[in-house]
Amino acid sequence: ISEFDPFLKSHIEKYGNAGAGTPSYLSSKICEEFVQLMGDCVLSEIVGEVNMAKYYSISVDSTPHVSHLDQLTFILRYVSPEGHSQERFLKFLPIESHTGEVLCELVFMVLGEMNIDIANCRGQCYDNAANMSGVYKGLQA
Fold it and tell me: Which of 93, 87, 91 is nearest to 72 (CA)?
C-alpha cells in the first residue's frame, strides 16, 4: 500500500524497523484494522455511486474457497454519471445452504445492510445452477 501513498511510505521507512521500545504501529492487528477501514471506505464510495446511478443489476455466484467453504460473490453493475458502465465487487459471504430461499435472504440482507433499494434492481445474473436460475423455486424466481 505504501508504494501508492508517499506519507505512508515515509512513515514505514522512518519507523518500520525502529527497534524494541519504539512504537511503529505496524503490527498485524494495526495493519488488519487499516485494511478494514480502507475497504469500508471503498465500499461506501461504491454504494454512493450505485445510489446516485439509481438503477443497477446484480450478479451472484457461488464459489468454493480453498478451505472448502462455499462463498457467495456479490457484484453490482451500474452506469456512472459520465455514462460509463461499472462493475464492482461488493463482498464474499460464506454460505451453508444453497436453497433459493436462503440465497434470496442473503441477497436482501446484503442490499439492506448497504442501503441499496432492491426496487431499483433492473437485472439479475446467476450461474445456471437450478438453485440460482429459477428452476425449482430458485433465487431468480
Answer: 93
Yes or no: say if 58 and 125 are a contact pair by the CB < 8 Å rule. yes
Mean pLDDT by 10 residues, the chain (141 residues): 83 73 74 91 95 94 76 93 94 84 89 95 77 51 49
Write out the E strands in the chain: 56-64, 70-79, 85-95, 121-126
What is the value of pTM for the model shown? 0.72
Q: Where are the domains of the chain?
A: 2-133
- CA 98 from centre of chain: 20
Half-sphere exposure of 106 toward its Cβ, with a 13 Å CA cutoff? 25
Q: How far is CA 141 from CA 26, 85, 94, 103, in A?
A: 48, 26, 22, 11
